[in-house]
Amino acid sequence: MDDIWQAPIGVPLDLPVATALPPVPLPPDAHVDQLIWHGDGIGPDARVYVAARDAHTVTVRIAAGERVVADLRVRRGPARAPQPHGLLGPGVTRRPTYTRRFTVGEKHTTDHVPGAEPVLSTPTLIAFMEDTAADVLRPHFGPATASLGTWIGVRHTGPARIGQTVIVTAALVETRGRRYLFDVRAAADGRPVGDGQVAQTLISLE
To answer: What transmembrane ranges does the database entry give (predicted)?
Structure first.
């Protein structure tokens, strides 16, 4: 079985792929730092290769043909225990959700396709998602506390036009110290507009 710490980048690995988590076997003394799903599932034609590497982490990519299914970031050493930070009051538990509605205005659209009707831009969609995720945390902020968006992994899957209402839902799925990871989804007129994950990190303003 190939060693992910030594394998050449981009070369298929001799690793079994499973539908369980983690989807590939981990080396000894390593843990999953982050798992990002890009596709709908792992099929029989899935292949695995190292997509990136630094001194402490390796990103193992699962692909099916030209389609990227998932990126698994593996970090050396045991998983770190969350450290208490005292920046939030009580009340934030696993999988709280929050939903917001945004009306698409002219300032929210992009018109870079000649002759096409202006539609909601991807940066604005991401901003809607990040703001909704932050709203899960805001009611629980301690004194002099704020949050910043520190990671995004979002697909923009459908258009939303001027005047339409975009409904965004954020659900907290993981907490690591001051970092909070959310599943986010957006829809307009009952039709999916985007989905993915965003992270918010708490900061002290003192």
So the answer is: none
